[in-house]
Amino acid sequence: MPSSIPASGTADVTHTTQTVPGPKKNSALSDILSLLWRDKVALLSAFLLLIVLVCVVVGPWLMADKARALNLMARNAPPFSLEKGWMFVLGADALGRSLLARIIVASQNTMLIAASAVAISIVVGGLLGLIAGYKEGWISAVLLRLADAIMSFPSMLLAVIVLFVFDPGVTNVILVLAVSRIPIFLRTVRAEVLEIKERMFVTAARAMGARTDRILLQHIAPMVLPTLINLAALEMAFVMLVESGLSFLGIGIQPPEVTWGLMVADGRNYLGSAWWLSFWPGVAIMLVTMALNLLSNWLRIATDPVERWRLQTTVGKNV
Amino acid sequence: MGGFIFKRSLQSVFSLIALIVLVFFLARLTGSPADLYLPQDASPEVRFQFNERLGFNDPLYVQFGRFLVGLLHFDMGESLQFSRPAVDVVLNAFPTTLMLAAITMPIVIILSVITGSLAAFRPGGVFDRLASFISLIGASTPNFWVAIVGVLVFAVTFRILPTSGTGTPLHWVLPVAVLTLRPTGVLVQVVRTSMITALSSAYVKTAKARGVGSRAIIFVHALRNGLLPVITVASDQAAGIVNGAVIVETVFGFPGIGKLMIDSVMLRDFAVIQAAVLVTALAVFIINILVDITYALVDPRIRYS
Question: Could you give the number of structural domains in chain B?
């Protein structure tokens, strides 16, 4: 398995492992972990995301001082040189602040904004999708038309206008991103519910007198959850890209708060003399986005009982 | 078919009206243009006259009513920054963005259809893995970052391309390349998936058994069916290209509608924002309807009634 080349977007390639596991009596968690171990690309992505998670949680706490410390000796220090210490391995900015430390500190805002926006759109979009799928009629029609209106309008323009009207602080950026992604979750959940609600167990629950909210939350929602989790990883990647773009344009996160997108924008003025200022934060965005995409692909297969065998057995070239 | 187009247009009109209302009231919230266009020490009387002349002192519903009446005459007010009708300003900037999209879209489609089809022919093969990896990078890279790195490499270091502006065809190379990247990355994956399905269908096996060459199988037999999902995704990418255009036009100083809109928001130019948003929304809606019609023409199973 060439772990240097990640597997592609769909189900049927390169999950080549030789062993066929016998029926084991493992917990679900260790089951998933052993599946993850088999797919080295997904494993690598998960590992990278884990590192980022550590940075998000303890990074600002450990590195905040180092990210602010001015070091005149290290002004515009180029990357890949260890003579100023490993903190300057990615170079330093015009004030001699370590770029590595700044990227680690900025990871918190970057990831938290994306995660909060996605969390809001999952909850709101998911609930509205449950309703729109289960109750047809005018509510569903109005929700879908609204979703269409938001979807067909370029999200960047909506964000540009809204963020200028209200201050472009962290909260408003999260809200704008959440609103622009709610339709995706609404539509996905609705499509699943339309299919699930015709199944026997839902009919049975209804026949036994279960209330609508109970049917939706206890019976239907768990069925939709795997799709939602998988979509969430993809959306997280997308939202991160949009947030970086907004911050880059100067209408997203405002200094002194810092995100990776903002760091790229700041470095733009030093493009000729210190290219690394824009370069590394962009690489960070790209790597995390790729890892989220790859992991989402893997999750889609791993959580689908029909597809899971692809991860457990040797697959042929053509499917 | 006529009924279908009518129904779709009606839905679009609904969305359009929602947008008009939203944009009008949001734009009014951005703050008073008097703060921006008059000197800081302007007296209250001067401010009042400024607002009176432009109609900003009237109640919001009066302003909105005036705005709607104007819309019917294709009059969306006067641009404050240019002192010209807002519609003119927007229609002036529109061709640049349209051109950007018109060059980008065919490149995206041709590139991704060819790459995706070839990748689908041998899933798991070397070409497939390479194509998947590269398309993943394309879909994951922030376009403003690519734009900056592109300027750094081709304009600053090698000096073979200009940094910004629109003068010569060379000016278009970097913006179009940056704009192409993300949609292509997404679309290659879509083409690949749908082509794998199409290639494993019975009629392709029949063609193979009859000894049809593999190139003919891919591009004649499978592609027609494999293209269907591509058309849907391509229409989503139309909105995506407008998103990308805002960033690309800003980085490269392209006088298109994206840059105009950002500038106008910064300068609180209500009229231009409204006009620009409406014209863009209209364009996106028209594209969506055209895509639906194409879909019906290509797929004989779909008959809208």
Answer: 1
In a domain? residue B177: yes
Could you say which residues of chain A have pLDDT below 50? 1-24, 314-319
Return the pLDDT at B87. Answer: 83
How close A10 gets to chain B, by Cα (Å)? 7
CATH superfamily, region A109-292 = MetI-like (1.10.3720.10)
pLDDT of residue A102: 84
* B62 falls within a domain: no
Q: Chain B residue with minimal CA distance to A288?
A: B140
Average pLDDT, chain B: 79
Do residues A134 and A216 make contact, with C-beta atoms less than 8 angstroms apart?
yes
CATH number at residue B117: 1.10.3720.10
Tally of CB atoms within 10 A around B290: 12
In a domain? residue B284: no
Q: Does residue A148 belong to the interface with chain B, where contact is any CB pair within 8 Å? A: yes
In chain A, the residue whose alpha carbon lies closest to the alpha carbon of B243 is: A156
Cis peptide preceding B162, ω within 30 of 0: no
Distance CA B218, CA B235 (A): 23
Contact criterion met (CB < 8 Å) for B27 and A14: no
B281 falls within a domain: no
Interface pTM (ipTM) of the complex?
0.78
Average pLDDT along chain B, 305 residues, taken 10 residues at a time: 70 76 71 66 77 73 80 75 82 87 87 86 84 87 87 80 75 86 86 82 80 75 74 72 84 86 78 81 79 72 53
Put simply, whether A270 touches B (Cβ < 8 Å) is no
Q: Of A6, A161, A271, which has the smallest distance from its Cβ to B273's Cβ?
A: A161
Structure tokens at A152: 């067909």
pLDDT tens digits, one per residue of B56-107: 777 778 878 877 787 777 777 777 777 788 888 888 888 888 888 888 888 9
Domain ranges of chain A: 109-292
What separation in angstroms does the CA of B78 have from each of A171, B22, B53, B102, B267? 34, 20, 12, 29, 14
Minimal CA separation from A262 to chain B, in Å: 11
> Range of B189's domain?
87-264
Q: What pLDDT score does A122 carry?
A: 92
Chain centre distance of CA B49: 40
pLDDT single digits (tens) A284-319: 899 999 898 888 888 877 777 666 666 665 444 343
Q: Residues near A111 by Cβ (< 8 Å), separated by ≥ 6? A: A52, A53, A56, A240, A288
CB-CB neighbors (< 8 A) of B26 in chain A:
161-162, 165
pTM for this prediction: 0.80
A98 - beta bridge partners?
A92
**DSSP letter for each residue of A147-198:** HHHHHHS-HHHHHHHHHHHS---HHHHHHHHHHHHHHHHHHHHHHHHHHHTT
Q: How far apart are CA B251 and CA B245, in angstroms?
A: 10
